[in-house]
């Protein structure tokens, strides 16, 4: 294949990936894993389309697999950015953005909804850049000479217990510390029971979509219900002021998010939501909603990028996109030494970087456009309409069982609000089922 043909195929498939990621990101209930499964199931048709766009791809089937992998990774990167738009404005979180519902909606209610999306997009850009820099250190740690991936695997259950304990320790501030910790234990127990029943119990919902109703009920719907019960009034005027320049705090927050994303991108069973849990604990002082959005943006994109990069290091898929890339590329070229990264990995990373660079300003523009319209409507009406939209999406994406699960999760989701403890404890709904899985406990 000529260089011009390769560049053309790379650009076309990356741009198509950005388009696909924008559609899935802006549509609660859809995930990039759905796109990955569709591409694998209809690979022959996709290859025919690709050959029509880039005739030279028919010469080498490996090139077609690489181009389709670029499409998937671009979709994953852009989805990670666009996903924050419905999270902030509709309160419809996914597992990756569940924690963003809280600070994002808080910023919306003080006239900074566009800022919330823009900060997440900034964190996504910074996180992508830091993730690229982290590739070599990650390769050094996970494979030869340290082989941390194999050494750490038996300690995964202990690590998850540590995470749960660290979240509880975050309540040890201010007055009535012991009482708050006890209440937080109760919240974690309820969330854990719900998570175990949903993710390890009888399969009533497609496992690929079960997290949407679970996290909508735990985080999104309670936020909207609070908005509906608030005093009548309009959502404050959404300011369209430009963001200040990138600060040291922004870089520090994005670095925290990237570190968490890198750490869990290779741990069995963990993903973006668990990375967000790690990134929001351990600070010397409470993190404000603005910096929290930067953290979450960095977590989201770095996890999407590094989960595929890790595939080349330890040859294990930790995400749906990574599994699809492995299916498309077949036998992966070994990353034998630090200075000899496989060319296919370099191309995929370039696709992810380009996709994020395109998606971040587009998501910011969409957030600004929505913010201008949001301030014209009564806040309670907006929350009511958003709640109806989330319920409709749940019905379409998951059926009656999904709606019922969301209702049950909502009952659990309002408990930390009533007990006045942090809602991050609800992440036990994901962490405990993973803990049980890797501790080999039959439940």
Would you give an account of this structure?
The protein has one domain (3-438). The chain has helices at residues 3-25, 32-41, 43-53, 61-82, 84-90, 101-108, 113-142, 148-152, 156-169, 177-199, 211-229, 248-264, 272-279, 289-314, 320-329, 343-374, 379-413, 415-419, 428-438. With 443 residues, it is mainly α. The protein is globular, with a radius of gyration of 21 Å. The relative contact order is 0.19.
Number of separate helices: 19
Helix content: over 70%
Total strands: 0
Whole-number total of structural domains: 1
H/E element order: HHHHHHHHHHHHHHHHHHH
Structural class: mainly alpha
Keywords:
about 450 residues, about 70% helix, 19 helices
Briefly, what is this?
The chain has 19 helices and no strands. It has helices at residues 3-25, 32-41, 43-53, 61-82, 84-90, 101-108, 113-142, 148-152, 156-169, 177-199, 211-229, 248-264, 272-279, 289-314, 320-329, 343-374, 379-413, 415-419, 428-438.
List the helices and strands and how they pair.
Blueprint: H1 3-25, H2 32-41, H3 43-53, H4 61-82, H5 84-90, H6 101-108, H7 113-142, H8 148-152, H9 156-169, H10 177-199, H11 211-229, H12 248-264, H13 272-279, H14 289-314, H15 320-329, H16 343-374, H17 379-413, H18 415-419, H19 428-438
Helix pairs in contact: 1-4, 1-16, 2-4, 2-15, 3-4, 4-14, 4-15, 4-16, 5-7, 6-7, 6-14, 7-12, 7-14, 7-16, 9-19, 10-17, 10-19, 11-17, 12-13, 12-14, 13-14, 14-15, 14-16
């Amino acid at each position: 294949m000529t260089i011009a043909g390769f560049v053309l195929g790379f650009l076309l498939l990356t741009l198509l990936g950005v388009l696909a990621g924008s559609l899935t990101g802006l549509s609660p209930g859809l995930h990039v894993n759905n796109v990955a499964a569709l591409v694998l199931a209809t690979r022959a048709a996709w290859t025919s389309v690709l050959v029509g766009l880039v005739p030279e791809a028919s010469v080498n089937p490996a090139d077609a697999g690489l181009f389709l992998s670029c499409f998937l990774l671009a979709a994953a990167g852009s989805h990670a950015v666009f996903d924050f738009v419905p999270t902030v404005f509709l309160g419809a979180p996914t597992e990756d953005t569940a924690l963003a519902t809280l600070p994002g909606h808080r910023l919306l209610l003080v006239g900074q909804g566009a800022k919330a999306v823009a900060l997440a997009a900034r964190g996504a850009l910074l996180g992508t850049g830091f993730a690229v820099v982290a590739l070599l250190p990650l390769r050094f740690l996970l494979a030869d000479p340290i082989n941390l991936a194999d050494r750490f695997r038996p300690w995964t259950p202990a690590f998850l217990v540590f995470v749960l304990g660290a979240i509880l320790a975050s309540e040890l501030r201010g007055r009535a510390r012991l009482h708050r910790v006890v209440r937080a234990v109760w919240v974690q127990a309820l969330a854990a029971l719900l998570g175990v029943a949903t993710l390890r119990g009888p399969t009533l919902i497609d496992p690929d979509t079960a997290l949407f109703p679970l996290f909508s009920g735990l985080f999104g719907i309670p936020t909207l219900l609070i908005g509906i019960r608030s005093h009548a009034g309009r959502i404050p005027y959404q300011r369209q002021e430009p963001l200040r320049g990138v600060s040291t705090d922004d870089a520090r927050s994005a670095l925290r998010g990237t570190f968490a994303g890198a750490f869990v991108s290779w741990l069995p069973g963990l993903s973006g939501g668990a990375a967000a849990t790690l990134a929001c604990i351990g600070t010397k002082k409470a993190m404000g909603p603005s910096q929290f959005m930067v953290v979450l943006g960095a977590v989201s994109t770095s996890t999407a990028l590094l989960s595929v990069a890790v595939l080349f290091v330890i040859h294990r898929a930790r995400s749906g996109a990574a599994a699809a890339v492995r299916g498309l590329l077949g036998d992966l070229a070994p990353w034998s030494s630090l200075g000899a990264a496989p060319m296919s990995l370099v191309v995929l990373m370039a696709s992810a970087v380009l996709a994020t660079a395109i998606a971040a300003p587009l998501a910011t523009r969409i957030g600004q456009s929505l913010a201008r319209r949001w301030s014209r409507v009564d806040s309670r009406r907006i929350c009511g309409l958003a709640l109806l939209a989330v319920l409709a999406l749940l019905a379409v994406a998951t059926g009656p069982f999904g709606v019922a699960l969301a209702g049950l999760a909502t009952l659990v989701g309002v408990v930390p609000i009533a007990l006045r403890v942090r809602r991050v404890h609800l992440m036990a709904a994901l962490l405990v089922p993973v803990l049980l899985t890797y501790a080999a406990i039959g439940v």
